[in-house]
Structure formats: structure tokens, C-alpha cells
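We were asked to recover a plausible sequence for a given structure. The inputs and outputs are reproduced exactly as logged, with field labels preserved.

PROBLEM: sequence recovery
POSITIONS: 568
GIVEN STRUCTURE:
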């Protein structure tokens, strides 16, 4: 049964969050209390109080044995009251391990949340509804678990499900192109569709900012070929996926010399500043998540779009859909997500205090919490591993800023540097580079403990704002050394103390890597994870595998060190 979806529903949901959360938990317990997993703690009771008292807070690893048993053919009701019909693979790039989550085939909630978020955007972005959106999205080939259930990243499972119809009826790319599992053919065709329909497009985007930056790089490599296809009205022969080829050919239509010249002229200019707005002049916003580790792509997207509003629509994971951004035009650093209380049952561990667990409506303004998910497909009080900060309330429902992934820390001595600290360093680097001729297009770091004392190494991929004829990057020693210094200044007082006073930490280093290095890093992660999706990929803010650092090391162009101690 589909749910009503208009903006008044958002008011109703957020005004009655407590009741709705109670109802969600009751429903889940009614269907799952007799599972092997829960009956150990509840003995068949669906009492909410007993659930909170007896059911333990767990991590993925604790539930994994049950998940594996279902994947191997045991009935779903050992874990979930609702039948498990598929398994979704998490990206694994944020936590380091790829996880496999059970999933039922009810996508009503997700469809509802996506539709609600689109309504919110139409309300704030004038003319959004009247135009088309070019949102890059990809699917992976489905694999199967030993018992034959489909296994793939969430977007793939969703897009391929019979119960799910593409919500973006106003999308420039037909489903056939998005469902093509060859990412290169699909990306090429999505761009071709978008270029041909350039005058109708009001929004350009991708689920995550990193993917959109990657698409622009791809466009940088293929624009001449795309233009030649438009000029001749004939799609390149290497597009061999038949349904993709047929549907893109229909859209390309007759030869269009004028359009090909126009695009060639824009792409052939020395600087790609504002290329998105130049190629798609009616674009009103860029839809891509730019919070969390995605913040590193803000400068690149602002550059390519001439500072169009960057809209981070949703906060979701393989465990659950959490919330939507009800102020889509807020600046990236002010983005908060309003939780939708009908999605799953949510609890929150106070990560700064005594670890107390509270309900959605009982979180405190300013507090830092890790969400726990109890969902309809077998997760009960499962830790998500994200840390969120409460920034306000929409009616009775809290709004959260994404602070960081938990436990992703860098440390060369005993200083605990969190992902959020690293993001502060990233912001400082971005500011330091702002007035220069360079923009940051990739960022990650690691703790180099092969030197004594150990030190922080930041890998930066930089791009010249204006392409020069030699293709060389104008690396200014003074600017990059200064960049190292401001990054150190932005790290925690504990870091600065150990670095400046005790000498337990060595000078911070920047290693500038060749262009395309972060694409290689992504390829490396796909290689190891086999089956991750580029739609879900998140550049790790920090790397800790020797192999991943080798990918970067091979591409280092220059090194710079901070030349003074930070203040303490
Ligand atoms: P996955 O399960 O692979 O899709 O990854 C989910 C994870 O991506 C979440 O737990 C977050 O760490 C991250 N993530 C998802 N949405 C956002 C967002 N809007 N802002 C920041 N991080 C996000």
C-alpha cells in the first residue's frame, strides 16, 4: 500500500515522532519476537520495555553469523519476521569492511522518503518541477548468495526490484541506461543524454559528490567523442549494450551540428571553471551529498558550477534510511538531516557522556550520538558507526549534523585525531588554496610511523584552474608549506602539544599526487571489494592499508613539510 506523500505529511511525522517510533517498534516486535535471535532475550514477548532491557546493543559482527546462515539457505525467520529477499552490500569504504545486510522487498519507505525529499527541493528551488534532472546513477551486476538470493549494493537492488519504479520521471536518462551494468558505457550514455537535453536540465547531480567530480573528469576525457556523436547523430560503436544503445540513439536523434559546435566551444576553453553552468545553463542546483568525507569535493564542485547551491538531500546507509534535509539550500557546513520517524526504530548512544541510550525524541541539543537501528529486516539495536550532533528540532523531531565516522582516527603517538579533526584540516587547506591557481580534487591521509618521530601525511590531488600548455601543475613551494602550517594549526590542542612541545610528532607533510590518482585509489578498492558500487563509493578520509598507500605513493609528484611549530 503506498503512503500519502505531500508536505503536510512531513509536518505530521515530525510532530508525532514519539508515537510513530512506538508504533514502528511494536510492529517490528510483533513480527520478529519469535525469531531465534530475539526469542533468546524476549522469550516470545513483544513488550517494548523488555526489548530495551534485554536485547543487547550489537555491532554488525555480532549479527553476521545469523546473516551468513540465511545467505547459506536457512530460513529468514531465524532473524527476521519478514522474509529476506535480498542482501545488500555496504560500500565498506567508510568502515574498512564490506558488510552484507539482509533486506526484505518492501521499498515503500524508501520511495516515500525520496519523494518527500524531492517535494522539499521543489518548494525551495523555483522551477525544479518544470525541468529535467541529470542525476548520475549506476547499477552493478547482481551476484547471488550460496542459497541463490540476490546480492548487490543497495541502489542496484532497489533499481532492479519489481517493486521499485524509478522515481525520477523527469530524469534525462532512461532506466535502460541506468540499468546497464558496464559503468563506462553507462556514464558515457548518461552524459550524451544530458548534453542533448541541455536546455531542459534544472539540476545536475549524483548520490555522492565524489561521483559527480569523477563524471566531470570523464567528460574531460570524452567530450570530443561525445560532440562527434552529436554532430553525426551516431553513437560510438563501443556502446555495445543493446538496450542502452537503442535508448541513447533515440534521444540523440538527428545530426545536430550547431549543438556539437556549441559544446565543443565550451569544453575547448582553457579553464573549466563553471563548466556545469556553461553546458547546462538552466541548472539551479547541484544535488550531491557534500557532508562528512564528501566535504573534500566542495571546492571542485563550486569551481565547476560557479558556486551553484550544493544540495545534500538525504542521510541513509545500508542499515536504514535516516533522514532528509528540509533546508536544501543551506550551506554545506550547516546541513542537518531531519530524521523520519517512520523509517526504522532509532535509538542513540551518547558518545561523549556516559554511553546512555536514549530514544529519538529524547536526544539533547548539541549532544553527540551514535545511532542504533532496529529495522524490519533483522537488525536489532545495531550500531551504525556514525557520530551525529543534534543541531535543532523540526517540530518534535531532532535534526542532526553528520560529524564523523566513529573510531576512524589517525594517531602517531597517543593523540586521538578523529575524522572530524581531519575534516577541519581539510577545510584549512581548502581556504589556504582558495586564492591560488589550484583547486583540490582529492584528499586522504595516513600516519607515517616509518619516520622517527612519526608524522601525518596528507595526499592532495590538485588541479590547475586554468590549463597551461605544458600540462604541468604550478606548485608554489611557499603556498604549499603554508598550507602544511595552517593544517597543523587546525588540528587538536593535543596534537599541537605533542608536535610543538614534546617533539613526539614530526612535521606534517603534504604529498601532491598526479591527477587521476584518486580514481586509481577507487579502482583499487573495487578490486579488493569485488562488487562495490561507484554510486556508493566514499573516498576514505584516512587510509590504513599498505596496499592502498602504495597506489598513492606511485603517483607522488612533490612533497612539502610544515616549517614551523604550531601554536599551543
Ligand atoms: P553505505 O552503507 O555503504 O551506503 O554507507 C553508509 C554510510 O555513508 C553512512 O553510515 C555514513 O557514514 C555515510 N553517509 C551516508 N549519507 C551521508 C551523508 N548525507 N553525509 C555524510 N555521510 C553520509
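RECOVERED SEQUENCE:
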Amino acid at each position: 500500500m503506498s503512503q500519502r506523500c505531500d508536505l503536510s505529511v512531513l509536518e505530521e511525522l515530525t510532530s508525532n515522532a514519539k508515537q510513530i517510533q512506538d508504533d514502528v517498534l511494536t510492529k517490528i516486535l510483533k513480527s520478529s519476537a519469535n525469531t531465534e535471535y530475539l526469542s533468546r532475550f524476549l522469550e516470545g514477548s513483544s513488550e517494548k520495555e523488555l526489548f530495551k532491557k534485554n536485547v543487547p546493543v550489537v555491532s554488525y559482527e555480532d549479527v553476521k553469523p545469523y546473516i551468513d546462515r540465511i545467505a547459506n539457505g536457512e530460513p529468514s525467520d531465524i532473524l527476521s519476521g519478514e522474509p529476506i529477499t535480498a542482501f545488500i552490500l555496504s560500500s565498506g569504504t567508510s568502515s574498512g569492511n564490506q558488510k552484507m545486510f539482509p533486506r526484505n522487498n518492501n521499498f515503500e519507505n524508501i520511495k516515500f522518503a525520496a519523494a518527500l525529499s524531492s517535494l522539499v527541493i521543489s518548494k525551495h528551488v523555483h522551477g525544479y518541477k518544470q525541468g529535467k534532472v541529470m542525476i548520475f546513477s549506476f547499477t552493478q551486476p547482481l551476484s547471488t548468495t550460496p542459497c541463490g538470493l540476490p546480492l548487490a549494493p543497495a541502489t542496484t537492488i532497489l533499481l532492479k526490484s519489481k517493486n521499485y519504479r524509478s522515481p525520477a520521471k523527469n530524469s534525462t536518462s532512461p532506466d535502460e541506461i541506468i540499468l546497464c551494468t558496464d559503468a563506462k558505457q553507462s556514464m558515457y550514455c548518461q552524459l550524451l543524454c544530458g548534453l542533448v537535453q541541455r536546455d531542459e536540465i534544472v539540476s545536475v547531480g549524483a548520490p555522492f559528490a565524489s561521483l559527480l567530480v569523477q563524471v566531470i573528469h570523464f567528460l574531460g576525457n570524452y567530450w570530443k567523442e561525445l560532440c562527434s556523436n552529436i554532430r553525426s547523430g551516431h553513437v560510438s560503436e563501443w556502446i555495445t549494450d543493446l538496450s542502452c544503445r537503442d535508448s541513447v540513439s533515440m534521444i540523440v536523434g538527428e545530426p545536430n551540428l550547431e549543438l556539437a559546435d556549441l559544446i565543443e566551444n565550451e569544453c575547448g576553453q582553457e579553464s573549466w571553471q563553471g563548466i556545469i553552468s556553461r553546458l547546462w545553463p538552466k541548472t539551479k542546483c547541484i544535488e550531491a551529498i557534500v557532508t562528512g568525507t564528501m566535504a573534500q569535493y566542495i571546492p571542485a564542485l563550486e569551481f565547476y558550477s560557479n558556486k551553484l547551491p550544493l544540495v545534500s538531500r538525504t542521510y541513509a546507509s545500508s542499515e536504514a534510511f535516516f533522514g532528509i534535509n528540509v533546508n536544501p539550500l543551506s550551506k554545506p557546513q550547516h546541513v542537518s538531516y531531519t530524521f523520519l520517524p517512520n523509517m526504522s526504530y532509532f535509538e542513540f548512544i551518547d558518545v561523549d557522556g556516559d554511553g546512555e541510550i536514549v530514544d529519538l525524541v529524547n536526544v539533547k541539543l548539541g549532544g553527540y550520538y551514535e545511532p542504533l537501528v532496529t529495522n524490519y529486516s533483522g537488525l536489532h539495536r545495531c550500531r551504525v558507526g556514525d557520530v551525529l550532533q543534534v543541531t535543532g528540532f523540526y517540530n518534535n523531531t531532532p535534526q542532526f549534523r553528520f560529524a564523523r565516522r566513529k573510531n576512524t582516527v589517525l594517531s602517531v603517538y597517543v593523540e586521538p585525531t578523529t575524522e572530524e579533526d581531519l575534516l577541519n584540516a581539510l577545510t584549512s587547506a581548502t581556504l589556504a588554496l582558495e586564492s591560488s591557481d589550484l583547486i583540490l580534487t582529492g584528499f586522504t591521509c595516513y600516519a607515517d610511523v616509518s619516520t622517527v618521530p612519526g608524522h601525518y601525511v596528507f595526499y592532495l590531488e590538485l588541479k590547475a584552474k586554468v590549463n597551461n600548455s605544458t600540462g604541468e601543475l604550478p606548485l608554489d613551494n611557499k603556498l604549499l608549506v603554508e598550507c602544511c602550517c595552517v593544517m597543523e594549526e587546525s588540528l587538536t590542542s593535543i596534537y599541537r602539544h605533542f608536535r610543538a612541545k614534546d617533539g613526539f610528532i614530526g612535521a606534517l607533510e603534504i604529498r601532491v599526487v598526479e591527477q587521476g590518482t584518486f580514481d586509481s585509489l577507487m579502482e583499487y578498492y573495487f578490486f579488493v571489494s569485488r562488487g562495490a558500487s561507484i554510486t556508493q563509493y566514499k573516498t576514505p578520509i584516512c587510509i590504513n592499508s599498505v596496499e592502498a598507500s602504495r597506489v598513492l605513493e606511485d603517483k607522488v609528484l612533490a612533497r612539502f613539510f610544515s616549517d614551523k611549530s604550531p601554536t599551543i
